[in-house]
Amino acid sequence: METKLANPAPLGLMGFGMTTVLLNIHNAGFFPLGSMILAMGVFYGGLAQVIAGILEYRKGNSFGVTAFVSYGFFWMTLVGLILFAQWGWIAAPPKAFLGTYLFIWGIFTFFMWLGTFGNNRVLQFVFLSLWILFFLLAIEHWVGNEELAHSIGHFAGWEGILCGASAIYLAMAEIVNETQGKTVLPIGERK
Prior knowledge:
Elements: H1 9-27, H2 35-58, H3 62-86, H4 95-114, H5 121-142, H6 146-180
Helix pairs in contact: 1-2, 1-3, 1-6, 2-3, 4-5, 5-6
């Protein structure tokens, strides 16, 4: 008897997408960084993505494992960088060094984007917009001019909202299309 496994990708995509939208609503200047965003970063952006990645392992999806576990721990390390400094456990990293942290994640994401080629168009867009977001955030932290840095960060916030929204759309498309047994929300499937 064959066991049918559930698709863990919508869980991981929602954890990533919703947390990304919330953080970038902050980056776009609408709300201050607060407990809601940080809690989402630990539990839904972080823990839920790690769980989804572990479930992708069971399905034999190396890309899914690498993406969800890596970005889940990205969220946890980002929250750790913020809270540990606020609690006085460690010094906050210098702004330029935080830019390097974001740049390294951008490099990782660029190569993950290359891994989406041959997959659906929405997944390609999620990773394309994410590596652009990481590079914008890195530049924001590297720029010496505070006014320019603020403008870049504000633009990155809007771009990040689009990135997160695309992940939410893909998650919901996978759920709706699977439950309906047909394409209701198109994702640009590769033929």
